[in-house]
């Protein structure tokens, strides 16, 4: 598609459509549809103007609401009825097709039966013929008679309708006589009438010439059919091909579709371009949605955009007759579903049908009431917004700027929702302005009049309501569900001190808990403040103070996971045994909840008793306690995390406080606690349960008099309860930031604003907490902004980026104002097209993404059998789906992190963590993106995203930069005598939006070893050894099977082995056996004989039998060799092992040689055969092997196990060739591997099950395409469960949220599908490509995305240890 056409589509379908709520003139649609859309939008715009002229507000509102309700109900019902009628027709057609198919199948079955019967009868006749021909010389006369009878019989069998033909001839003669009589009568009647001239169909051709886009003259011939009068003299017609122009779906016999004749439209004075345009328009006519085909002459060029096909007419079979009954008359139209969907959106559910009608009516009512506050030009812009909101409910905007994904149906309600929302805010603020007096209130010793504030808000909401189309154009407002989650989350965090929301249902639980805690605290506080006397002597007030701490502790222990609450209220669902392993609770949630309730009661009673000792009333504020909190907090939360980083203070080249795992290359267990980690955990415990509760109780006792005297009993009980509850609850969640609140409060209110703008201590702490959080958020946004703007960090990907870079620098003041606004409302700022021009985006929750899902892995249990065996081209194990196979490693990693992540965070191994932080966890194979969503007291919720193993060039360069160590040359350092980094690296480390925290973050997961199989299977010696191990393993598993001794005693089975246990038996299959691959190959007889097999494998068979004794083993072992066996007692043990070895090798030789359509070259058939055998593709094609059908479980329990375990044996042989010279060593290894090693294909469901269940060792073989040619290469995948070291890298959370928003806007709204777009090019300082790759599908392309998981602490409360109840035992 050329640039001009794409720009035109962008302005039509994107800009104009977004501004007008989905309306724009689409030249691809018919004139009728565009007319309907135009008039409908105009009606929605004019109606409020008309009803606004009514002076009575109630009457205009009611009439306007009824009219809108009626319009939407009628249109929605008509649309619904038309769709149901078309659905009914499609259903009937499907049933008709099924009936016809069933009839055809029955006819085929009957015809086959008849053919079989006829064949049997004709065969009998032919036998009779041959018998009669042999007796020709004896009785010639009799032979002739018999031949005639046989011929008659043959005619009766094959053509049994000779009598019918006679009857037909007689009927035809009668019909001809009747027709002659009728013609004679007609001639008599029409004697006086003039005879019309006869007409005939004449085919003519016209040669048309034109010039194409390259200026080359082209020719084509048009054949037309016309009716002309027949001339008197008949002229011989030239034979011409009958190729009339016919539109798809037309019928020449239908008079409504006349044949195209160019002469009706082309004149002599027309140019070639005009002729081309007319011919194109006539050939591609569009269908009238409410009638027959009509010609649509639109001024457009003949040449189409590149790669765009001309529009096609709907087929006749797709057209349906729909009708409506109105005023007793049935009105019928011809429609197809495509035209109907172009006219109005279809409501897929009844819920959306009623939501649209109700929302449109509510918006109309509220807008009409609010419109009386708008005047002159304000009404014009207001009613434009109303028209866009109503029109969008009928024909939505796709895509919309605030849509997080393409084809999102929830955005159709956004405009009407925000119209109703802001109209309600306008009415509320107007009512408040009318009721608020001019009385001034003092807050922070500032006299504030609320009337100007609400008047300002009233004007702001009016402006928002008028400018809604512009806000939707820039994507500032989100869809309604996202806004509701955001508002609930902000209330939960800012007011009640909660954590982030992770689930829709979790909102309900948390809001209910907040309301319950709020009412309980209000009741206790109201009762306490009503008592007379001093508050510190009042037991009710002490009870209020103590149980604020207890309730805050209990609330901090409850996650937002709805499954946790389900398990509490439904004890039968405690362990979720039917859920996936990563979704299980490895403890009893009910028991944990009851234990937390007990601890909360103890905490409440302890602090109630402490408050009764009057220790909190002797001093207003204990400065020593504040100093301890500030000094210890700075040391523990600032100095220690900095000294533990990979580059402390961005200055030193090695961590000052090192973990013991940093120097170890191999880890034998989990990370051990160091002395500074123990100090860190002890201080966090003291900080949570002693220091901050004491500080807040001193502040509450000091502030209660002032608040109660100024606001009254109700106000004081609500304010003190909420503010105290929030402060102490957040300290239980995460106390790493609270010392900053205390420092800020002390410096600001005791020094900067001393005696000027100071409130009570509880209010000061709350204000400090809010300001510090917003300042830190602003700093993160500003760091992302200016570090993204630095030209040294920016990779200029196109000419557009150069211009936007310059324009962005000139508007830095505007950008900073955007950053301030985004900080206030906690919204991301996103670079436009990845450039330096930043824009505001809509508000999102901490979770960010609206969807909650998990990556489903495809294996053999979820595909067709042909795909699993590799027969068809949709083989999911091909190279194009290697990412699907790698996703399982991330699945195990996030299962492992559910057991250990919170303990690592609590020990400070990831630094000072807050909810919303992002981390990269990187090792040699895995590159995972960790998002900490919720951080509570004893738990954290997170989501893990796995990136590709082998990524793009940009991804590899960014990973190299992150993994790159600092320069070891001390001469380039500032101070060569100290271990510091160089001057250049000091600057670089401060320009990155990410920082390396630890190079030894330990997690228990699989070490993936991927080695090429070329060396292990290249030479003939290796292949011969591999076949030997294959046969040995088959013998081992055969003897281990329980039915081995039962089979050799079964008479029916031993009868099949009787010929094979003879001493002279040999199997000489040239395709299967060869001296190059088989150790027991008998060269003298060109095959494998039982004697040669016994000579090589009898020691191994004896050893296996000796290790597996049974009741009758001793007697049977006497007849293992051929010399000891007799005809009466043959060696069935040897024979059984021999036929199994023959079967195993023949299955290997006849394994599927699979070739995809794209890959037709196979480098090595040997590896391809083994790969097919490894996956379980068994082809029993030789008649000698049909004995295996006696027990088909032999293939699964013996052959498949032997084929898979051979890979492990071959790998050991390649490492140490002399390892298995002794049969005992081979047997011991097979016994060990049978218990500890899982060998199967990666597409086998057992592979995933083994990984999730933490099988110690797994091995498989993988095939993937080479990048340089169309051949396969094979890799040995060996997994070993161990503790691995990861590089932990912390990323600026605002840069992640901003880049994600930029990608959503660019791909979904601007439809930039360029895979090499500039916004995802590498930028090492930002890690832009890695961050953009981790977006949700289809914006990004991670290979694995986990659900929202919860990691709990190994011990719920530090003085007690319930580790066995909270964590599973490791295998």
TrEMBL record:
Protein name (database record): Protein pecanex
Biased composition (Acidic residues): 155-164
Basic and acidic residues bias (residue ranges): 89-115, 125-154, 177-195, 236-253
The organism of origin for this protein: Anaeramoeba ignava (Anaerobic marine amoeba)
Superkingdom in the source lineage: Eukaryota
Protein's UniProt keywords contain Transmembrane: yes
Gene Ontology cellular component terms for the protein in this record: membrane
InterPro entries, alphabetized: Pecanex, Pecanex_C
Positions of transmembrane segments: 31-51, 58-78, 353-375, 416-433, 453-476, 507-529, 536-555, 593-610, 622-640, 678-700, 784-804, 816-842, 1027-1048
Keywords: Membrane, Transmembrane, Transmembrane helix
Family per similarity comment: Belongs to the pecanex family.
Primary location class: membrane
One Pfam match: Pecanex_C
Region of interest: Disordered: 89-263
Subcellular location: Membrane
Membrane topology: Multi-pass membrane protein
Location of the Pecanex C-terminal domain: 1130-1354
Lineage of producing organism: Eukaryota, Metamonada, Anaeramoebidae, Anaeramoeba
């Amino acid at each position: 598609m050329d640039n001009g056409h794409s720009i035109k589509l962008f302005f039509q379908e994107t800009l104009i459509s977004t501004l007008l709520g989905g309306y724009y003139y689409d030249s691809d649609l018919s004139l009728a549809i565009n007319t309907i859309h135009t008039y409908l939008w105009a009606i929605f715009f004019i109606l409020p103007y008309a009803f606004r002229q009514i002076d009575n507000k109630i009457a205009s509102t009611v009439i306007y609401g009824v009219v809108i309700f009626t319009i939407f109900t009628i249109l929605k019902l008509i649309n619904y009825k038309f769709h149901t009628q078309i659905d009914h027709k499609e259903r009937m057609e499907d049933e008709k097709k099924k009936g016809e198919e069933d009839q055809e199948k029955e006819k085929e079955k009957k015809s086959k039966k008849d053919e079989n019967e006829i064949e049997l009868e004709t065969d009998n006749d032919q036998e009779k013929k041959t018998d009669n021909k042999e007796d020709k010389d004896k009785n010639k006369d009799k032979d002739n008679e018999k031949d005639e009878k046989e011929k008659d019989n043959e005619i009766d069998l094959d053509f049994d309708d000779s009598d019918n033909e006679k009857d037909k001839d007689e009927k035809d003669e009668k019909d001809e006589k009747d027709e002659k009589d009728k013609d004679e009568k007609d001639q008599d009647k029409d004697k006086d009438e003039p005879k019309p001239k006869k007409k005939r169909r004449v085919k003519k051709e016209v040669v048309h010439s034109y010039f194409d886009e390259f200026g080359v003259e082209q020719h084509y011939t048009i054949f037309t059919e016309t009716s002309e009068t027949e001339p008197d003299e008949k002229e011989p017609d030239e034979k011409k091909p009958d190729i009339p122009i016919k539109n798809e779906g037309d019928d020449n016999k239908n008079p409504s579709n006349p044949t195209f004749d160019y002469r009706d439209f082309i004149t002599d004075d027309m140019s070639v371009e005009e002729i081309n345009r007319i011919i194109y328009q006539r050939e591609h006519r569009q269908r009238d949605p409410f009638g027959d085909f009509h010609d649509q002459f639109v001024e457009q060029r003949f040449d189409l955009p590149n790669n765009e096909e001309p529009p096609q007419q709907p087929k006749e079979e797709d057209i349906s007759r729909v009708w409506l009954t109105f005023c007793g008359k049935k009105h019928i139209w011809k429609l197809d579903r495509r035209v109907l969907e172009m006219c109005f959106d279809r409501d897929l559910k009844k819920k959306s049908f009623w939501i649209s009608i109700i929302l449109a009516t509510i918006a109309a009512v509220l807008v009409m009431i609010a419109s009386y506050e708008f005047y002159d030009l304000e009404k014009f812009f207001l009613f434009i917004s109303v028209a866009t909101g109503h029109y969008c409910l009928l024909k939505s905007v796709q895509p919309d700027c605030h849509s997080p994904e393409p084809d999102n149906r929830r955005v159709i309600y956004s405009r009407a929702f925000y119209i109703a929302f802001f109209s309600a805010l306008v009415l509320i603020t107007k009512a408040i302005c009318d009721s608020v007096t001019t009385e001034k209130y003092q807050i922070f010793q500032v006299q504030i009049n609320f009337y100007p504030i609400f008047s300002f808000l009233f004007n702001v909401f009016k402006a928002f309501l008028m400018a809604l189309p512009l806000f939707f154009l820039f994507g500032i407002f989100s869809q309604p569900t996202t806004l509701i989650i955001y508002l609930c989350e902000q209330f939960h965090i800012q007011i009640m001190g909660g954590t982030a929301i992770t689930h829709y249902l979790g909102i309900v639980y948390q809001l209910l808990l907040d309301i319950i805690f709020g009412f309980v605290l209000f009741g206790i506080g109201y009762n306490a403040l009503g008592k007379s006397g001093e508050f510190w002597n009042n037991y009710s007030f002490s009870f209020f103070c103590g149980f604020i701490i207890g309730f805050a502790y209990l609330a901090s222990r409850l996650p937002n996971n709805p499954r946790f609450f389900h398990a509490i209220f439904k004890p039968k669902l405690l362990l979720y045994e039917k859920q996936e392993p990563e979704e299980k609770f490895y403890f009893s949630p009910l028991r944990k909840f009851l234990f937390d309730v007990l601890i909360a009661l103890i905490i409440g009673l302890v602090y109630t008793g402490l408050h009764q000792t009057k220790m909190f009333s002797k001093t207003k504020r204990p400065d020593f306690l504040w100093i301890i909190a500030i000094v210890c907090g700075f040391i523990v939360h600032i100095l220690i995390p900095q000294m533990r980083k990979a580059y402390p203070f961005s200055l030193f080249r090695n961590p000052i406080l090192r973990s013991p795992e940093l120097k170890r290359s191999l880890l034998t267990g989990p990370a051990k606690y160091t002395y500074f980690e123990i100090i860190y955990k002890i201080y966090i415990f003291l900080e949570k349960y002693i220091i901050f509760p004491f500080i807040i109780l001193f502040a509450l006792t000091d502030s209660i008099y002032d608040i109660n005297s100024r606001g009254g009993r109700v106000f004081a009980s609500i304010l003190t309860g909420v503010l105290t509850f929030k402060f102490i609850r957040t300290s239980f969640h995460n106390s790493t930031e609270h010392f900053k609140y205390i420092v800020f409060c002390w410096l600001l209110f005791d020094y900067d604003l001393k005696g000027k703008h100071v409130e009570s201590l509880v209010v000061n702490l709350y204000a400090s907490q809010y300001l510090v959080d917003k300042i830190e958020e602003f700093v993160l946004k500003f760091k992302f902004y200016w570090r993204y703007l630095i030209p040294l960090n920016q990779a200029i990907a196109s000419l557009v980026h150069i211009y936007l870079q310059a324009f962005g620098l000139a508007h830095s003041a505007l950008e900073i104002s955007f950053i301030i606004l985004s900080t206030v409302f906690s919204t991301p700022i996103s670079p436009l097209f990845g450039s330096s021009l930043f824009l505001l985006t809509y508000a999102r929750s901490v979770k960010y993404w609206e969807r909650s899902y998990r990556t489903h892995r495809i294996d053999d249990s979820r595909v067709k059998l042909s795909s699993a065996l590799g027969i068809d081209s949709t083989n999911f194990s091909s190279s194009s789906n290697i990412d699907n196979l790698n996703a399982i490693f991330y699945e195990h990693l996030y299962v492992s992190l559910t057991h250990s992540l919170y303990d690592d965070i609590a020990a400070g191994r990831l630094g000072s963590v807050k909810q919303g932080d992002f981390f990269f966890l990187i090792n040699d194979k895995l590159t995972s993106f960790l998002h900490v969503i919720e951080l509570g007291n004893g738990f954290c919720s997170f989501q893990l995203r796995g990136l590709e193993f082998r990524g793009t060039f940009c991804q590899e360069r960014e990973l190299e930069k992150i993994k790159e160590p600092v320069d070891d040359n001390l001469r380039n350092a500032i101070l060569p005598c100290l271990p510091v980094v160089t001057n250049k690296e000091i600057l670089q480390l401060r320009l990155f939006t990410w920082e390396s925290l630890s190079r030894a973050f330990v997690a228990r997961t699989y070490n993936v070893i991927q080695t090429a199989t070329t060396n292990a299977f290249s030479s003939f010696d290796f292949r011969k050894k591999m076949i030997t191990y294959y046969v040995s393993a088959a013998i081992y598993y055969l003897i281990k099977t329980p039915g081995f001794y039962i089979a050799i005693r079964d008479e029916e089975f031993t009868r099949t082995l009787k010929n094979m246990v003879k001493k002279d038996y040999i199997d000489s299959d040239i395709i299967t056996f060869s001296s190059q691959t088989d150790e027991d190959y008998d060269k003298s007889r060109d095959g494998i004989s039982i004697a040669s097999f016994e000579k090589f494998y009898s020691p191994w068979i004896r050893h296996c039998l000796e290790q597996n004794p049974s009741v009758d083993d001793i007697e049977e072992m006497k007849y293992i060799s051929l010399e000891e066996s007799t005809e009466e007692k043959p060696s069935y043990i040897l024979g059984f092992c021999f036929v199994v070895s023959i079967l195993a090798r023949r299955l290997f030789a006849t394994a599927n040689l699979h070739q995809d359509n794209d890959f037709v070259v196979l480098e090595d058939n040997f590896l391809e055969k083994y790969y097919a055998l490894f996956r379980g593709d068994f082809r029993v094609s030789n008649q000698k092997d049909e004995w295996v059908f006696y027990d088909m479980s032999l293939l699964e329990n013996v052959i498949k196990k032997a084929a898979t375990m051979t890979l492990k044996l071959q790998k050991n042989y390649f490492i140490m060739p002399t390892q298995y010279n002794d049969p005992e060593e081979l047997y011991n290894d097979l016994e060990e591997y049978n218990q500890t090693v899982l060998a199967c294909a990666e597409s086998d469901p057992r592979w995933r099950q083994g990984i999730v269940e933490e099988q110690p060792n797994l091995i498989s073989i993988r095939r993937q395409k080479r990048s340089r040619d169309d051949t396969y290469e094979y890799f040995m995948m060996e997994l070993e469960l161990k503790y691995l070291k990861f590089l932990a890298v912390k990323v600026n959370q605002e840069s992640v949220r901003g880049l994600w928003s930029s990608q959503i806007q660019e791909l979904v709204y601007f439809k930039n599908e360029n895979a090499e777009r500039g916004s995802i090019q590498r930028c090492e300082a930002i890690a832009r490509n890695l961050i953009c790759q981790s977006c949700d599908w289809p914006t990004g392309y991670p290979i694995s995305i986990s659900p929202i998981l919860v990691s709990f602490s190994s011990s719920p409360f530090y003085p007690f240890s319930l580790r066995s109840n909270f964590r599973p035992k490791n295998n």
